[in-house]
Amino acid sequence: MSEIQLVDAPAGVEGAGFFATSVDKAIGLARSYSLWPLPFATSCCGIEFMATMSPHYDLARFGAERLSFSPRQADLLMVMGTISKKMGPVLRQVYLQMAEPRWVMAVGACASSGGIFDTYSVLQGIDEVIPVDVYVPGCPPRPEAIIDGFIQIQKLVQSETLRRRNEPKYQELLASYGIQ
Predict the structure, then answer these.
(1) Residue 67 is part of a domain; what is its CATH number?
(2) Does some domain include residue 163?
(3) Would you call 48 exposed, middle or buried from its count of C-beta atoms within 10 A (0-12, 13-18, 19+)?
(4) Pairing between β-strand 103-107 and β-strand 76-80 as defined by DSSP bridges
(5) pLDDT grade for 4, boundaries at 50, 70 and 90
(6) What would the mean pLDDT of 131-145 be, rounded to a whole number?
């Protein structure tokens, strides 16, 4: 799964061994199992998220034990449910208050594409106001689907280099959303 290996100590060096890996991989592994999600739930998908946190599904076993209800202490924004156009600026402000690195998961049809609400007052996907890393389909999605989306975020976090956030491609993405 990971490329972190325990290597035997060279001849003449005492000890059980040492770890051989890159700093990027070690930090990615540590980050991926210590994500602090901020649930931004507005409707029925939030109820499914509550089930995901329950002992039966137990999202805590993936390292998301501590939910954060403060954007300054969270690194994963989980948007669940219908987001109205009036709420779009609030969602954007919450996103901007999060420290880098930050990731976003759109949970359910409404957060991903507006769902069945094709009206003037509903955002047709939160990617109109903030960048999204993982989309979880369903109306509402089952807890297993939310867990799968969380695992996809973990894989993204593990494979992300420390320099990705400074790359021109990432800066262009943020600029397309008007984020400096």
Answers:
(1) 3.40.50.12280
(2) no
(3) buried
(4) parallel
(5) low
(6) 93
